[in-house]
Amino acid sequence: MVDLVAWRGVEPERADAAAVTFGRRSLRASGSSLTREVTVTYDLETGDGWITRRMRVRVSAKDWWRSLDLTRHQDGQWSALVDGENDDHLGHATLADGLDAALDCDLQECLLTNTMPVLRHDLHRTAASVDFVMAWISVPDLSVHASPQTYAGDGSADVVFRSGDFVATLKLDDDGLVVDYPGLGSRIWRAATAGAAA
Asked: Does residue 98 come out as left (phi exceeding 0), alpha (psi in the -120 to 50 range) or beta?
């Protein structure tokens, strides 16, 4: 079964959607985010323990595009391939140092990429606080940064997210998918359908 999920995004105003296939301890997803300026599409694959294997992202506008193929290898090293057309105004995309501890990717303004660390530590059901380093992908330049983040669960569907001075309380469903992320977006609907995520 594939879960189809749609969110209404804010700051910037967006229409976000994803098709998600859950394995026992993994997931695959294809998603998109549409704003007035750019369209972002992505394909995400994790391995066991919801650890990122590969994240492919493409950002496109009227007269330019840029893509990122980000891979986490079995030895814990990350690699990135960047391509584009008429994208010189974005500057050079970079892969930061300090990603050795990162198990997850985190795509800017993407409401799906909060799910993996939550599921790995059952934070939507367990009272615990866990520190992470994320491979954070900035949009639109698609540079990859090492981002320290903390997720703290209280045993309910509410999980407090911290990154630097930013703090937000995320409301999640039973599968760790975001229902509401103050300041970023909220879910419109979720439905299950037969098939496989593209």
From this structure: left
CA-nearest of 138, 142, 143, 132 to 100 is 132
Q: What is the pLDDT of residue 29?
A: 98
- The reply to whether 181 falls in a domain is yes
Q: Both tokens of residue 126?
A: 């367990």
- Assign residue 90 a region (left: φ > 0; alpha: ψ between -120 and 50; beta: otherwise): alpha
Residue with tokens 């198990």: 103
Residue 16 belongs to some domain of the structure: yes
H or E, element range at 188: strand 185-193
Can you tell me the distance from the alpha carbon of 51 to that of 117, in angstroms, rounded to the nearest whole number?
8
Query: Which tens digit of pLDDT belongs to each residue from 83-109?
Result: 999 999 999 999 999 999 999 999 999
Contact between 51 and 25 under an 8 Å Cβ cutoff? The reply is no
Domain that holds residue 121: 2-193
Length of the chain equals 198
Q: What is the pLDDT of residues 163-184, one digit of tens each?
A: 999 999 999 999 999 999 999 9
Q: Is residue 175 part of a domain?
A: yes
8 A C-beta contact, residue 197 and residue 28: yes
User: DSSP alpha helices (H): ranges in 7-141?
Assistant: 115-120
pLDDT of residue 195: 59
Instruction: Judge whether 198 lies within some domain.
Output: no
Number of domain units in the chain: 1
pLDDT for residue 198 is more than 50? no
pTM equals: 0.94
